Structure formats: structure tokens, C-alpha cells
Amino acid sequence: MKGLKIFSLWLVPCFVLANTGEELTALARQAVNQQAYTRAETYYQQALNLYAQQADSQAQQIEVLLQLAVLAYQQGQYTQATPLLKQGLTLCETTISDTDNCLSILHNLGAAYQAQDDFSAAEPFYSRLLSAQEARYGVQSVELVSTLSALAVLYYQQGRYPEARTAYQHAIQLQIKQGDTRALLPLLEALAELQFTRFHDLNAAKTLYEQILLLRDSQQGSLELADVLNLLGLIHFQQADYSRAELFYQRALALREKLLGAEHPDVAVSLNNLAKLYMMQANYIQAKPLYERAIQILEKQAIPNNPILRKVQENLALLITQINKK
Fold this sequence. Notes:
By secondary structure, the protein is mainly alpha-helical. The protein contains 15 helices and no strands. 76% of the residues lie in helices and 0% in strands. It starts with 20 loop residues before the first helix and ends with a helix.
């Protein structure tokens, strides 16, 4: 979930006397850097009171209200952040409303309500932000990506999967034009998971995971790469493309053994997947030792009522039944 946009905090000299809003704001930021949040809040409140007495200080008040809200949000005080942001938004609506701070206030109101699971309250702020960004940057700007992603997550949380898919697809289209693969990966992964688990569209999910694999292949020592290989194996397995499934499962197993060690429970999961593939092809001789090794690994974890262990044991029992029928 997207959090509040945090402005960079910088160290400033400590003033002996703070007589201006700028000095108080500087002291507040220094206190934040020192994790002295109560002191920071006091300085920000004093600065806000000073600015409120000055003419043409709306921009400064908006900045301080935003920082107070960020401070509250960082401490999990979402209900305290919301009125501060609303106060800032009211000021934005009486001045130029497309400044960076005003756009951030819209984002942060969406995030604050989203953090409280008040999705219906969050959506209008994200939608207003998206419209403001389109007007300011253009409808093809990469600046829209973070807002589209936030909306996609919000739709997903509400079970509005088609809208989430559309938002992710739009964000991906814009991000591809930017050419930043690091920012593209989480969008592709979110959309692939959505296509696979919610729409059960194996072909669409496979295409996306193949794109992710190309991007992840440069990370040869990555656990994320092992996860993608495992998912591609599962998709090919469900499509009864067993030869391709075997290749992906074997690569996932080898990488997990290398990165996690031979006794890790994720290795047991890969062993179970590969054994199940062999059992489906009636290749019982290859399947049985893989199930047995997976059980041995999981039993060492000593997790009470381990559902994964129970499932592997059931798979092995079914395999033995099949062998006895021969």
C-alpha cells in the first residue's frame, strides 16, 4: 500500500531563539531527524500559529500542515493526520491547487483513509489527484503511475478486480514509455498475480510472468527469480504442458537450494511440486523420493499442525496407493 509522500528532511543549525515560522520549521525538521517527534510537533504547531497571523502565508501553512500530517501518519496516528490534511486541502482550494504540496495532500488523504480501511472515503481523493495530474502533466505522463497504482490497490482491496486490472494496465503502459525496469517490475507482478489468482487467466498470467522472467533473469541470485520460475512451472502444469513445467520447477528448485540451503521449507515446496508433476505422469519412481525428502525437511521444522507437511504426506499416501494398484 502506498504511504504518505515523505518530503526529504534536512539538518539545519539549531537556533537559540526561534522567532519566525522558518526557524521553527527548521527546528522541527531537526527534531524529526533526531526522532524527537513530540518536540517536532510542538515546533510545527508554533510555526503554524505564527503563519496563521501573517498575510499571504497560505503556502507556508500548507507546508506545515502537510509535515504535521506526515509526522502523525508515521506514528500510525491516521485519525490525527486526516483533519490536518483536510485543513491543508481547504487552503489549497483557496489558492493555486496544483502545487506539489497540494497534490501531495490529495495523495495523502487517500492514503490515510486507505490505512483506516475506509476505501469509499479514499477513492475520491485519488481520483481528484489523478485528474489534477492529467491536467498538469498530460495524460501520457509517468507522473500518473503512482496514483494509478494506488487506485489499483484500492480497487483490489474492495474486490473490484476489473477496475484494478485496468488501472494496472494503464500504469504499465505509461511506465514502459519511461523505460525504468525497476519501477515496472512491481506493476507487472501485481497484474500477473491478479490475472492468475482472481481471473484464472492462465495465458495472460503466463505472458506477464514471462516478461517478468526476462527482467529478473539478470538477477541470477534472486529469490524473486525462483518465485517467478515456480509460478511459471505451476501455470504450465495447470495447462498440462508437463515438459515445460518440469524445466521451470527444476530451475526453481536448484535456485532455492543454492540460495536457501537444502533444508529450507521453500525447497520442500519445490520438491513437492516436482513430485506432483511426476506423479501426474505416472512416473512414480521419480516422484516418491522427492515426496519423502520434502517430508523429512518439513518434519525438522517442528511446526504444529503444519498444513504444508500434511498436504505432502497426503500426496505421498496417494502415490503409494497408485503404486499398489499396479
